[in-house]
Design brief:
Blueprint lengths: L2 E5 L3 H16 L5 E5 L8 E5 L2 E5 L2 E3 L11 E4 L6 H5 L2 H4 L5 E5 L5 H5 L5 H4 L2 E7 L2 E3 L5 E3 L4 E5 L2 H9 L6 E5 L2 H14 L1 H6 L11 H18 L8 H11 L7 H7 L10 H11 L4 H17 L5
Parallel strand pairs: 1-2, 1-6, 2-5, 3-10, 6-7, 7-8, 11-12
Antiparallel strand pairs: 3-4, 8-11, 9-10
Enzyme class: oxidoreductase
Keywords: NADP, Oxidoreductase
EC number: 1.1.1.169
Length: 307
């Protein structure tokens, strides 16, 4: 059975690892999970899944091993801005056959890690689109509201990833057009900038002018995505707006949560990706550009980086 290293053991990493524990509880096996963290964590990790609590067992590593310890799968579920930190685990955990799954927001998973991998290692890298509503609590436990949805390219590597989660509750979809799938998710994430800008929950979209701003951000995202090679159908814009207006009003997306808590935000991986794709194709993205500029200015101030 495989050895799986999880780099980034926050809400997403913990809930993902819970899938392996669920399978192990149902059918005992020798799957081994390594929790790779900067600071010690308490194990097992309690994840309250949609069907009840799961105590996720694993070995906690707080620094890369001094000697090579190659794993079968390396799952990276850090924030998108922690690429350099995640890469410090590569020399000791990556072997010639290690598969790397990047479970992060945005559409640039492969591009983020390419500078830290050889050409051969890049062949084993799998970008993963994730939709897994979960929250890490102060006591270290994780509350998972629904089963995770993972979308991966429909390739042999993607099929191997799907097999990892068989009978785990997680839903892994093989996408024949992963780029479009990822950009569709980014449309929703990009619109979340209005909550981060205002520090308000999802209900902010009901305030005067906010629906129009959200509409414009999503419209720019679709245009930039299609220019980058995605094939987002015209009616998808209205689908996104319906979803944004009907989601729980008191909910706060992860970027807004980080903004309120004065933590670093993933704005560059979300709205920043829209800007970069737009620039390459000559597609204007003024609303996304404004969101990134203002949020980065706010972040610089509360992180003490402003001069």
């Amino acid at each position: 059975m495989p050895t799986i290293a999880v780099v980034g053991v926050g809400a997403i990493g913990s809930a993902t690892a819970a899938s392996f524990q669920i399978m192990k509880n149902a059918t005992p096996n020798d799957t081994k999970v390594l929790f790779c963290t900067r600071r010690p964590i308490q194990t097992p990790i309690l994840v309250n899944t949609p069907t009840g609590p799961v105590h996720v067992e694993g070995e906690n590593l707080t620094a890369p091993p001094c000697e090579p310890r190659p794993v079968d799968w390396l799952l990276i579920s850090t924030k998108a801005y922690h690429v350099e930190g995640a890469s410090t685990w590569f020399p000791s955990l990556l072997g010639p056959n290690t598969r790397i799954a990047v479970i992060q927001n945005g559409v640039e998973q492969a591009e983020r890690f390419a500078p830290y991998l050889s050409a051969e290692q890049q062949k084993n890298l799998l970008p993963v689109m994730v939709d897994l509503p979960a929250e890490k609590r102060e006591d270290g436990s994780v509350h998972q509201w629904k089963w995770g949805l993972f979308a991966v390219p429909d390739t042999p590597l993607g099929a191997e990833f799907k097999a990892l989660f068989e009978n785990s509750g997680a839903n892994v979809q093989l996408s024949a057009d992963w780029l479009t799938t990822a950009w569709k998710k980014l449309c929703i994430n990009a619109a979340g900038a209005i909550s981060a800008l205002t520090g308000m929950p999802n209900s902010v979209i009901k305030l005067p002018g906010m629906e129009e701003v959200s509409y414009g951000i999503v419209q720019e995202t679709i245009a930039a995505g299609n220019a980058a090679g995605a094939k987002i159908e015209p009616g998808y814009l209205e689908e996104v707006m319906v979803r944004l207006k009907t989601q729980p009003g008191d909910g706060l997306n992860s970027m807004a949560t980080d903004r309120v808590a004065e933590k670093e935000m993933e704005v560059e991986a979300r709205n920043g990706a829209v800007i970069r794709a737009g620039k390459r194709a000559g597609v204007p993205t003024p609303l996304n550009s404004m969101a990134v500029a203002v949020l980065l200015a706010m972040q610089s101030k509360y992180l003490g980086q402003a001069k």
